[in-house]
């Protein structure tokens, strides 16, 4: 990695998904990987920017799968720790149609839940252009939450910008527990991505512009409120932006938010102006919607040009 690259630090899982219908009726499954930090790393790499992912995986075939897929995408995995006492987390996904997919997670006792400050790849953080975290990994365990804080504080001390996608799922922790931890973690970050519900989880209220302003008051200089098919609003370096979405036929919502984050961060690392960061993010999200799977729709630069080229 160089100082222009991304380091995503957190959880990754192996994924087994049906092509259609419930797992009980399937005779074959698609094999892949998931984990929002890993997806962002792949998205950034496909856009031609150096990217690394670090975390803890089991010494098992699902862990080997995660590593192989990341390396195939050009993602640096030299900061990954192998845990011989715990398995890699799994996700089982039933795919019926874009509005009816069901995912089951098997994380209890996984390697990701055992993340500790000793797993923080300090040399990789020093060399990074941005450290990216998510709001999901702190919900895995107390030690994982502590690790995210230590990593963010270390990056700040080294002058490395910290990015976070505030994400919340009730399957991991209670809202009141998540709110306190994520509120404090956001205050250590320079770039924040959040949906409306995630922003309100932190006690903020109002329309999307007011939510962006409220998050900015916690310290981040760049705040993006993702609105799904309605686009996004952002407050970047004190200026406000409205981001329209690209009209596409949605096939699978999985990975769309990660694609948005990847597009923004790739442009941030390239030194692009705020409006271009947001346009690329919206285009990446649109691509991710058009095909099933967490990584399949993450675009490269040529695909982005095709979508954004004047017609």
From TrEMBL:
<dbReference type="Pfam" id="PF00294">
    <property type="entry name" value="PfkB"/>
</dbReference>
<keyword id="KW-0418">Kinase</keyword>
<dbReference type="GO" id="GO:0016301">
    <property type="term" value="F:kinase activity"/>
</dbReference>
<protein>
    <submittedName>
        <fullName>Sugar kinase, ribokinase</fullName>
    </submittedName>
</protein>
<feature type="domain" description="Carbohydrate kinase PfkB">
    <location>
        <begin position="7"/>
        <end position="300"/>
    </location>
</feature>
<keyword id="KW-0808">Transferase</keyword>
<dbReference type="InterPro" id="IPR029056">
    <property type="entry name" value="Ribokinase-like"/>
</dbReference>
<dbReference type="InterPro" id="IPR011611">
    <property type="entry name" value="PfkB_dom"/>
</dbReference>
<dbReference type="InterPro" id="IPR050306">
    <property type="entry name" value="PfkB_Carbo_kinase"/>
</dbReference>
<comment type="similarity">
    <text>Belongs to the carbohydrate kinase PfkB family.</text>
</comment>
């Amino acid at each position: 990695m160089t100082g222009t690259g991304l380091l995503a630090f957190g959880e990754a899982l192996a994924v087994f998904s049906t092509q259609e219908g419930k797992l009980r009726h399937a005779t074959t499954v698609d094999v892949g990987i998931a984990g929002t930090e890993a997806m962002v790393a792949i998205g950034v790499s496909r856009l031609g920017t150096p990217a690394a992912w670090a975390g803890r995986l089991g010494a098992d075939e699902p862990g080997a799968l995660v590593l192989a897929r990341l390396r195939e995408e050009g993602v640096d995995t030299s900061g990954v720790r192998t845990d011989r006492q715990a398995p890699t987390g799994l996700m089982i996904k039933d795919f019926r149609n874009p509005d009816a997919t069901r995912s089951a997670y098997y994380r209890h006792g996984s390697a990701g839940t055992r993340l500790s400050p000793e797993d923080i790849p300090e040399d990789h953080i020093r060399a990074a252009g941005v450290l990216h975290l998510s709001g999901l990994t702190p919900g895995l365990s107390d030690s994982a939450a502590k690790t995210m804080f230590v990593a963010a504080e270390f990056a700040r001390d080294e002058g490395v910008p910290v990015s976070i996608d505030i994400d919340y799922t009730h399957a991991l922790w209670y809202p009141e527990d998540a709110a306190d931890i994520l509120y404090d973690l956001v205050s250590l970050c320079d770039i924040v991505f959040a949906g409306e519900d995630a922003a309100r989880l932190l006690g903020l209220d109002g329309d999307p512009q007011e939510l962006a302003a409220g998050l900015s008051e916690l310290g981040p200089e760049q705040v993006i409120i993702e609105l799904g098919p309605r686009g996004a609003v952002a407050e970047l370096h004190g200026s406000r932006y409205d981001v329209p979405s690209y009209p596409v036929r949605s096939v699978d919502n999985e990975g769309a938010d990660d694609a948005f984050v990847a597009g923004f961060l790739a442009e941030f690392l390239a030194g692009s102006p705020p409006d271009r960061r947001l346009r690329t993010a919206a285009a990446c999200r649109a691509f991710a919607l058009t095909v099933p799977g967490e990584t399949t729709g993450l675009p490269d630069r040529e695909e982005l040009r095709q979508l954004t080229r004047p017609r």
